[in-house]
Design brief:
Blueprint lengths: L1 H8 L14 H15 L7 E2 L2 E2 L8 H5 L4 E3 L5 E3 H9 L26 H11 L15 E4 L15 E4 L1 H7 L4 E5 L5 E5 L2
Antiparallel strand pairs: 1-2, 3-4, 5-6, 7-8
Helix pairs in contact: 1-2
Length: 192
């Protein structure tokens, strides 16, 4: 990946141009945007049962402002211009939290969470919900909280929680008793 990003940033080029005053971190961010624009989305691997998707969270107000911002995750910020640039070649799916633009609760009709539900959980959870874990939500697996699907649980957004693979396995380990904290995180206690 570094080789591709370096090709876009030309790190061997040293001169007195405007690009020389841009911090390397910003140059690499711009290179990443250029690389994403060049990739054929139909050739990207599936991730979590869905096509690899970059989800940018921003408000409509911020998107319209020149000085607004967007987020790829809890620590990855984008300028409004970068969000608009990514949106130029993207399929835009508005995420209206709490709205009725797409059915997210499927009841007993499906054991696995649907792509729309996973996207909503990614926006909501942002990271693995295990207490103290910072694995990005896009790397996580959807877990049925409370009653497992095999025992009559629902495949609803409100009953789903994103956990990294390690914590998802721990949630199914009979040696641990998972519980929810007041903020919705999952805390694991070793059973004695």
């Amino acid at each position: 990946m570094n080789t591709y990003l370096e090709a876009y940033t030309s790190p061997r080029h040293h001169g007195s141009g405007e690009a020389d005053r841009i911090p390397i971190a910003r140059q690499r961010g711009q290179a990443f945007c250029a690389l994403m624009e060049a990739l054929d989305p139909r050739r990207m691997p599936a991730h979590g049962g869905d096509a690899t998707t970059v989800i940018v969270t921003t408000s409509l107000e911020d998107l319209r402002k020149d000085l607004g911002s967007g987020e790829l995750g809890p620590s990855d910020k984008l300028t409004a211009g970068e969000v608009r640039r990514l949106a130029c070649t993207a399929s835009i799916i508005p995420a209206v939290l709490g709205g009725k633009s797409e059915v997210l609760d499927l009841g007993r009709s499906s054991r696995l969470f649907k792509p729309a539900q996973r996207k909503a959980m990614i926006i909501r959870d942002r990271e693995c919900r295990a207490e103290g874990c910072t694995i990005p939500a896009v790397w996580c697996e959807a877990h049925h909280w409370g009653t497992p699907w095999a025992k009559g649980g629902l495949t609803d957004l409100k009953d789903g929680v994103l956990l990294c693979s390690w914590h998802h396995h721990r949630a199914h380990d009979p040696g641990f008793d998972p519980s929810r904290t007041p903020n919705g995180d999952v805390r694991f206690h070793k059973r004695t």
